[in-house]
# Entry
Amino acid sequence: MTIQQQYDATARADLLGRPIFAIFLVIIYGIYRLWQEGVAPTGWPNGSILVFGGIVSAAFIVVYMRILEKGSGKSFGKALGALGGLIPYVYSLYVFGYVGVWSLVQLFTMGFTWTGLIVGVVFALLGYRILYAFWQITEIGEGLRASESA
# Structure
């Protein structure tokens, strides 16, 4: 393995690790919520969505990175993998919007708690981190496709 190949592998691992680490932190909170409310709660299933959505999102981020490594070319698998890239996007918006920002809104509508403030700020930041890191991955994909077509 040459130095350039090691550098490329390290850069890919770093790029892949950023959103997956943030998703891992959200999954930990989701497990805590599952422990609190159960697998099939009577209300909105926050814990289930956070855990299972996080696992599926992390899997599709890995699939999306593998598609980028294969280069250009048309195939049904690449099309499905690229479409699967919407799953981490929607998951990050859910974490940012519902778990993060909506928790902050509820501080004013339901009553102020320090736990709600911490959860709202942390998950708004984690959701943004997942979204930003996945955006970086998709922009690298655009750059690779542009360099291959040139």
Q: What stands out?
A: The CA atoms of residues 30 and 132 lie 21 Å apart. The chain has a mean pLDDT of 85.
